[in-house]
Amino acid sequence: MASVFANFRQYLMGWGTQSRAGNTVDQFRSGLATPQFNGVVRVRSVSADGADVTAVRKEFANVPWWWWVGPDSPEDTADVLRCRGGRELTALPVMVLPLDEPADPGTVPHTAPTGLRVEPVRDDERLAELVRTYRTSMGIEPGLEAEMVRIESRREDNADIIRLAAVLDGRVVGTTVVITAHGVAGIFLVHVTEAHRRRGVGAALTAAALQVGRERGMRCAALVASPAGEPLYRRFGFTTTYEYRLFAFPA
Question: Is pTM beyond 0.85 here?
Fold first, then answer.
Protein backbone atom coordinates (compact mmCIF):
# COMPACT_ATOMS: atom_id res chain seq x y z
CA MET A 1 0.00 0.00 0.00
CA ALA A 2 2.99 2.34 0.32
CA SER A 3 2.92 2.89 -3.46
CA VAL A 4 -0.78 3.81 -3.37
CA PHE A 5 -0.24 6.55 -0.81
CA ALA A 6 2.90 7.74 -2.62
CA ASN A 7 0.73 8.14 -5.72
CA PHE A 8 -1.89 10.10 -3.77
CA ARG A 9 0.77 12.37 -2.23
CA GLN A 10 2.24 13.11 -5.64
CA TYR A 11 -1.15 14.09 -7.04
CA LEU A 12 -2.17 16.33 -4.15
CA MET A 13 1.23 17.95 -3.79
CA GLY A 14 1.19 18.74 -7.50
CA TRP A 15 -1.28 21.51 -6.68
CA GLY A 16 1.54 23.44 -5.03
CA THR A 17 4.29 21.76 -3.04
CA GLN A 18 5.49 23.56 0.04
CA SER A 19 8.33 22.23 2.22
CA ARG A 20 8.73 22.78 5.94
CA ALA A 21 11.89 22.90 8.00
CA GLY A 22 12.89 19.43 9.09
CA ASN A 23 10.90 17.77 6.29
CA THR A 24 8.47 16.20 8.75
CA VAL A 25 5.29 17.33 7.02
CA ASP A 26 4.18 16.80 3.40
CA GLN A 27 1.86 19.63 2.53
CA PHE A 28 0.49 21.33 -0.56
CA ARG A 29 -0.69 24.87 -1.07
CA SER A 30 -2.26 26.09 -4.28
CA GLY A 31 -3.38 29.34 -2.68
CA LEU A 32 -6.89 28.76 -4.05
CA ALA A 33 -9.65 29.73 -1.64
CA THR A 34 -11.03 26.21 -1.37
CA PRO A 35 -9.83 23.45 0.99
CA GLN A 36 -9.64 20.71 -1.65
CA PHE A 37 -6.36 22.15 -2.95
CA ASN A 38 -4.52 23.15 0.24
CA GLY A 39 -3.49 20.99 3.15
CA VAL A 40 -1.38 18.33 4.78
CA VAL A 41 -1.26 14.89 3.24
CA ARG A 42 1.26 13.20 5.57
CA VAL A 43 3.23 13.85 8.74
CA ARG A 44 6.22 11.63 9.44
CA SER A 45 6.19 12.34 13.17
CA VAL A 46 3.92 14.38 15.36
CA SER A 47 5.13 15.91 18.60
CA ALA A 48 3.16 15.35 21.80
CA ASP A 49 3.15 19.09 22.51
CA GLY A 50 1.52 19.79 19.14
CA ALA A 51 4.33 22.01 17.85
CA ASP A 52 3.97 20.61 14.32
CA VAL A 53 0.23 21.28 14.33
CA THR A 54 0.72 24.84 15.56
CA ALA A 55 3.31 25.55 12.87
CA VAL A 56 1.10 24.15 10.11
CA ARG A 57 -1.89 26.17 11.26
CA LYS A 58 0.17 29.35 11.05
CA GLU A 59 1.31 28.52 7.53
CA PHE A 60 -2.27 27.94 6.34
CA ALA A 61 -3.79 30.82 8.28
CA ASN A 62 -5.00 32.70 5.19
CA VAL A 63 -6.43 29.85 3.06
CA PRO A 64 -9.02 27.11 3.62
CA TRP A 65 -7.33 23.73 4.08
CA TRP A 66 -7.71 20.14 5.30
CA TRP A 67 -5.43 17.70 7.07
CA TRP A 68 -5.53 14.22 5.51
CA VAL A 69 -4.72 11.44 8.01
CA GLY A 70 -3.92 8.10 6.42
CA PRO A 71 -1.93 5.02 7.43
CA ASP A 72 1.26 6.71 6.19
CA SER A 73 1.06 9.04 9.24
CA PRO A 74 1.72 7.95 12.86
CA GLU A 75 -1.15 6.16 14.60
CA ASP A 76 -1.66 8.93 17.16
CA THR A 77 -1.95 11.74 14.58
CA ALA A 78 -5.74 11.96 14.80
CA ASP A 79 -5.62 12.15 18.60
CA VAL A 80 -3.05 14.94 18.52
CA LEU A 81 -5.10 16.89 15.97
CA ARG A 82 -8.22 16.63 18.10
CA CYS A 83 -6.32 17.79 21.17
CA ARG A 84 -5.13 20.81 19.19
CA GLY A 85 -8.58 21.87 18.03
CA GLY A 86 -8.98 19.73 14.93
CA ARG A 87 -12.46 18.57 13.99
CA GLU A 88 -12.91 15.34 12.07
CA LEU A 89 -15.11 16.00 9.05
CA THR A 90 -15.42 12.55 7.56
CA ALA A 91 -13.68 9.26 6.82
CA LEU A 92 -13.20 8.44 3.14
CA PRO A 93 -12.53 4.88 1.94
CA VAL A 94 -9.37 4.18 -0.04
CA MET A 95 -10.31 1.59 -2.66
CA VAL A 96 -7.92 -0.53 -4.74
CA LEU A 97 -8.30 -2.79 -7.78
CA PRO A 98 -5.49 -5.04 -9.14
CA LEU A 99 -4.82 -4.46 -12.84
CA ASP A 100 -2.82 -7.61 -13.53
CA GLU A 101 -5.96 -9.62 -14.29
CA PRO A 102 -8.61 -8.98 -16.96
CA ALA A 103 -11.84 -7.44 -15.73
CA ASP A 104 -14.70 -9.86 -15.11
CA PRO A 105 -17.27 -8.95 -17.80
CA GLY A 106 -20.07 -9.85 -15.43
CA THR A 107 -19.13 -7.14 -12.95
CA VAL A 108 -18.43 -4.15 -15.21
CA PRO A 109 -21.33 -1.78 -15.90
CA HIS A 110 -21.95 -1.26 -19.62
CA THR A 111 -24.84 1.18 -19.90
CA ALA A 112 -23.95 4.63 -21.25
CA PRO A 113 -25.79 7.27 -23.28
CA THR A 114 -25.77 6.72 -27.03
CA GLY A 115 -23.05 8.84 -28.61
CA LEU A 116 -21.00 9.28 -25.44
CA ARG A 117 -17.23 9.39 -26.02
CA VAL A 118 -14.50 9.34 -23.39
CA GLU A 119 -11.40 10.96 -24.80
CA PRO A 120 -8.09 12.41 -23.57
CA VAL A 121 -7.89 16.17 -23.09
CA ARG A 122 -5.33 17.45 -25.58
CA ASP A 123 -5.83 21.22 -25.90
CA ASP A 124 -6.35 24.29 -23.75
CA GLU A 125 -9.98 24.78 -24.73
CA ARG A 126 -10.93 21.25 -23.66
CA LEU A 127 -8.89 21.60 -20.47
CA ALA A 128 -10.91 24.68 -19.57
CA GLU A 129 -14.13 22.72 -20.15
CA LEU A 130 -12.84 19.88 -18.00
CA VAL A 131 -12.01 22.21 -15.12
CA ARG A 132 -15.34 24.03 -15.45
CA THR A 133 -17.19 20.71 -15.24
CA TYR A 134 -15.50 19.40 -12.10
CA ARG A 135 -15.38 22.85 -10.49
CA THR A 136 -19.14 23.19 -10.83
CA SER A 137 -19.74 19.66 -9.53
CA MET A 138 -17.51 20.35 -6.50
CA GLY A 139 -19.30 23.62 -5.72
CA ILE A 140 -16.17 25.74 -6.20
CA GLU A 141 -16.68 29.42 -7.01
CA PRO A 142 -16.37 30.45 -10.71
CA GLY A 143 -13.77 33.08 -9.83
CA LEU A 144 -11.20 30.36 -9.13
CA GLU A 145 -11.56 28.65 -12.49
CA ALA A 146 -8.85 30.49 -14.43
CA GLU A 147 -6.24 29.81 -11.75
CA MET A 148 -7.28 26.14 -11.57
CA VAL A 149 -6.76 25.83 -15.31
CA ARG A 150 -3.36 27.52 -15.03
CA ILE A 151 -2.21 25.15 -12.28
CA GLU A 152 -3.49 22.09 -14.15
CA SER A 153 -1.63 23.11 -17.30
CA ARG A 154 1.67 23.74 -15.49
CA ARG A 155 1.91 20.77 -13.14
CA GLU A 156 5.46 19.44 -13.09
CA ASP A 157 4.18 15.84 -13.30
CA ASN A 158 1.94 16.28 -16.34
CA ALA A 159 3.84 13.50 -18.14
CA ASP A 160 2.32 11.11 -15.58
CA ILE A 161 -1.22 12.45 -16.01
CA ILE A 162 -4.01 11.65 -18.43
CA ARG A 163 -7.12 13.82 -18.19
CA LEU A 164 -10.28 12.24 -19.57
CA ALA A 165 -13.43 14.04 -20.69
CA ALA A 166 -16.78 12.35 -21.26
CA VAL A 167 -18.21 14.16 -24.29
CA LEU A 168 -21.84 14.06 -25.42
CA ASP A 169 -23.21 16.18 -28.24
CA GLY A 170 -19.95 18.13 -28.31
CA ARG A 171 -20.06 19.10 -24.63
CA VAL A 172 -18.06 17.82 -21.66
CA VAL A 173 -20.49 16.07 -19.30
CA GLY A 174 -17.99 14.22 -17.09
CA THR A 175 -14.36 14.22 -16.02
CA THR A 176 -11.64 12.19 -14.44
CA VAL A 177 -7.89 12.55 -13.99
CA VAL A 178 -5.55 9.56 -13.93
CA ILE A 179 -2.04 9.83 -12.54
CA THR A 180 0.20 6.87 -13.37
CA ALA A 181 3.06 6.89 -10.88
CA HIS A 182 4.68 4.47 -8.41
CA GLY A 183 3.08 1.56 -10.27
CA VAL A 184 -0.40 2.84 -9.46
CA ALA A 185 -3.14 4.40 -11.57
CA GLY A 186 -4.53 6.97 -9.15
CA ILE A 187 -8.02 8.08 -10.18
CA PHE A 188 -9.13 11.57 -9.16
CA LEU A 189 -11.82 14.17 -9.92
CA VAL A 190 -14.48 11.77 -11.17
CA HIS A 191 -17.37 14.17 -11.73
CA VAL A 192 -20.51 14.11 -13.86
CA THR A 193 -22.73 17.09 -14.58
CA GLU A 194 -25.94 17.01 -12.60
CA ALA A 195 -28.16 16.58 -15.66
CA HIS A 196 -26.28 13.46 -16.77
CA ARG A 197 -25.89 11.55 -13.50
CA ARG A 198 -27.11 7.97 -13.06
CA ARG A 199 -26.94 7.40 -16.82
CA GLY A 200 -23.69 5.44 -17.04
CA VAL A 201 -21.29 8.35 -17.57
CA GLY A 202 -19.38 7.66 -14.34
CA ALA A 203 -19.04 4.00 -15.28
CA ALA A 204 -17.70 4.90 -18.73
CA LEU A 205 -15.14 7.27 -17.18
CA THR A 206 -14.04 4.63 -14.65
CA ALA A 207 -13.64 1.99 -17.35
CA ALA A 208 -11.55 4.39 -19.45
CA ALA A 209 -9.38 5.29 -16.45
CA LEU A 210 -8.70 1.62 -15.77
CA GLN A 211 -7.77 1.10 -19.41
CA VAL A 212 -5.23 3.95 -19.11
CA GLY A 213 -3.71 2.20 -16.09
CA ARG A 214 -3.44 -1.12 -17.95
CA GLU A 215 -1.95 0.49 -21.07
CA ARG A 216 0.71 2.22 -18.96
CA GLY A 217 1.59 -1.01 -17.15
CA MET A 218 0.38 -0.07 -13.68
CA ARG A 219 -0.01 -2.85 -11.09
CA CYS A 220 -3.23 -1.52 -9.58
CA ALA A 221 -5.75 1.31 -9.64
CA ALA A 222 -6.66 3.26 -6.52
CA LEU A 223 -9.01 6.06 -5.54
CA VAL A 224 -10.59 7.82 -2.60
CA ALA A 225 -14.32 7.19 -2.90
CA SER A 226 -17.20 9.51 -2.14
CA PRO A 227 -20.37 7.99 -0.65
CA ALA A 228 -22.09 8.42 -4.02
CA GLY A 229 -19.29 6.76 -5.98
CA GLU A 230 -18.46 3.85 -3.68
CA PRO A 231 -21.23 1.48 -4.92
CA LEU A 232 -20.14 1.99 -8.54
CA TYR A 233 -16.50 1.23 -7.76
CA ARG A 234 -17.49 -1.94 -5.92
CA ARG A 235 -19.27 -3.10 -9.07
CA PHE A 236 -15.95 -2.76 -10.89
CA GLY A 237 -14.26 -4.93 -8.24
CA PHE A 238 -12.59 -2.24 -6.12
CA THR A 239 -12.26 -3.14 -2.45
CA THR A 240 -11.70 -0.88 0.53
CA THR A 241 -8.25 -1.31 2.05
CA TYR A 242 -7.71 1.75 4.25
CA GLU A 243 -9.25 5.15 4.79
CA TYR A 244 -8.36 8.81 4.98
CA ARG A 245 -9.71 10.77 7.94
CA LEU A 246 -10.24 14.39 7.03
CA PHE A 247 -9.69 17.11 9.65
CA ALA A 248 -10.33 20.86 9.64
CA PHE A 249 -9.36 23.60 12.06
CA PRO A 250 -11.18 26.80 13.00
CA ALA A 251 -9.93 29.88 11.19
Answer: yes
